[in-house]
Amino acid sequence: MNLTLKVWRQNGPDDKGHMEIYPVKDINPDMSFLEMMDVLNEELISEGKDPIAFDHDCREGICGMCSMFINGEPHGPERRTTTCQLHMRSFKDGDTIVVEPWRSAAFPVIKDLAVDRAAFDRIQQAGGYVSVNTSGNTIDANAIPVPKQNADKAFNAATCIGCGACVAACKNSSAMLFVSAKVSQYALLPQGKVEAKERVRKMVNQMDLEGFGNCTNTGACEAECPVGISLENIARMNREYLSASLSSAE
Amino acid sequence: MAKSALLGSSLAKKYWMALTGLFLSIFLVVHLAGNLVLLGGQAMAEDFNAYAEFMTTFPLIKIASYLLYASILFHAIDGILLTIQNRKARPVKYHYENPSANSGWASRNMAFLGTVMLLFIVGHMATFWWRMKFGEMPIDAVGQKDLYTVVATYFTTASTAWLHVLLYVVAMIAIGFHLWHGFQSAFQTMGVNHPKYTPVIKKVGYVFSVVIPALFAVIPIYMFITQ
Ligand code: HEM
Ligand code: SF4
Ligand code: FES
């Protein structure tokens, strides 16, 4: 396959950045998108040019690092797919492919296609945990019965890989799908219920501080999420936050 | 930390948006019920005027109407604040976007639709509400303020009547699209998302967003055609 890539190049956080055009030749349709980028980078290196910086790690769809906004959608045109699991057979010979970084005030560009997603870590640190006793008399988690339905929902919420595609897709750069997945994963389980009220307030507060936008319920996040986190989680977070705020003494 | 959890936070702004939006939706039904009397033509003019008089003077309705003015203001200001914040959250835009791949047009244009509606509401209130409350009004056969004649003149014999009808219909289309997304969105915002009820809420919302604005729009069109 022969393709034309239009890629965002930005030398560092303070550089203005620009789109650059790269022709790529003889691409195997069974390559992943990242492998195609590797081929291009090899060429750039052999020409003595600066290769395109992009994030990746597992290359098997589980780490959430491979952030790329491809042809107007996070992770490209396929549903439930990360960039590393996207294959070149999803494109046609002769296509022009536009590749950009995630765009959000809360995800500043580090270089080219790599963005800083530490805002997600700070939201997680604000309340995305359970406090358990680890001093030798830890209680077996399986000793507490959990309704199957809740266990399934908590598990589904826990599959969020923190990739940020929800933010990238949202016209408001809202992080509510991510935050709601993290809130739900604990709120649905007995161990998480203990700190549920405090957790949702702290995490939403941190989300607001990071400068993410507000949800308009467009559903773009759900459509683009590589693991299919559902809007049901945002509704759950909204319920949790409402009841936590109404009942708090502050 | 949570100094303004029920006022200033992102979710609080959304709750108020949803609650005022739903209240305004209920108001639309009440308003429509009164307007439909206009379809009775001159024969029912006095009934329409009596209804208008009741709506501007009955104390309980007065309280409701202040709640209504506050809701419109709050909804519009809150909506504008949210939209400004949302724009700021993405200071650098994408070069190429394909938004129709993942979301509906109405859901992405709530602020635009709202602005069209706000302009309409201002004009609409200046034309009818202001005049009814503070302006010179003709008097009907039984001595009531003759709002019927004011409305009929505006949509039939005024020299720009066709334009008035057209603008009215455009505004109703905007309300239709606003509610196409907004009705079900308000329930989701308030945390109502359930496998059994949500599909029903969505259907009710779609029917509501088509039928209510359509019935509003039929009235001036009918008056204009049958003048
Ligand atoms: C009859 C008048 C109106 C009705 C019945 C109405 C109804 C609604 C409803 C039900 C929602 C959904 C709330 C949610 O997503 O939780 C909504 C959202 C919205 N409305 Fe209105 N609205 C009206 C007028 C206006 C006006 C005049 C504006 C002017 C700026 C406006 C701006 C907005 C915006 C920006 C949103 C989206 C907020 C967001 O989720 O980001 N609306 N409206
Ligand atoms: S909710 Fe989905 S899109 Fe958002 S960070 Fe988690 S896995 Fe990625
Ligand atoms: S590189 Fe890990 S999910 Fe794509």
Describe this structure in words.
The complex is a heterodimer of chains A (250) and B (227). With 250 residues, chain A is α+β, with helices and mostly antiparallel strands. Chain A has two domains: 3-111, Ubiquitin-like (UB roll), CATH 3.10.20; 118-247, Orthogonal Bundle (Fumarate Reductase Iron-sulfur Protein, Chain B, domain 2). Chain A is built from nine helices and seven strands. In chain A, helix 3 (148-158) runs antiparallel to helix 5 (176-187) and helix 5 (176-187) packs across helix 9 (232-247). The radius of gyration of chain A is 20 Å and the shape is elongated. Chain A starts with a strand and ends with a helix. Chain B is mostly helical and 227 residues long. Chain B is built from eight helices and no strands. Chain B has helices at residues 10-36, 45-57, 59-88, 105-108, 110-134, 147-157, 161-189, 198-225. Chain B is globular, with a radius of gyration of 20 Å. The interface between A and B is large, with 54 and 43 residues. Iron/sulfur cluster is lined by residues 64, 160-166, 177-178, 181, 225-227, 229 of chain A.
Q: Within the CATH hierarchy, at the fold level, what is the topology of chain B?
A: 3 helical TM bundles of succinate and fumarate reductases
Within the CATH hierarchy, at the fold level, what is the topology of the largest domain in chain A? Fumarate Reductase Iron-sulfur Protein, Chain B, domain 2
Largest interface: A-B, 54 and 43 residues
Low-confidence stretches of chain B: none
Strand order within the widest beta sheet of chain A: 2-1-5-3-4
User: Into which percent range does the helicity of residues of chain A fall?
Assistant: 25-40%
How is the topology of this model organized?
The complex is a heterodimer of chains A (250) and B (227).
Chain A lengths: L2 E7 L8 E7 L8 H14 L22 E2 L2 E2 L21 E5 L8 E3 L2 E2 L2 H10 L20 H11 L6 H5 L6 H12 L2 H4 L2 H14 L10 H5 L7 H16 L3
Chain B lengths: L9 H27 L8 H13 L1 H30 L16 H4 L1 H25 L12 H11 L3 H29 L8 H28 L2
Helix pairs in contact in B: 1-3, 1-7, 1-8, 3-5, 5-7, 6-7, 6-8, 7-8
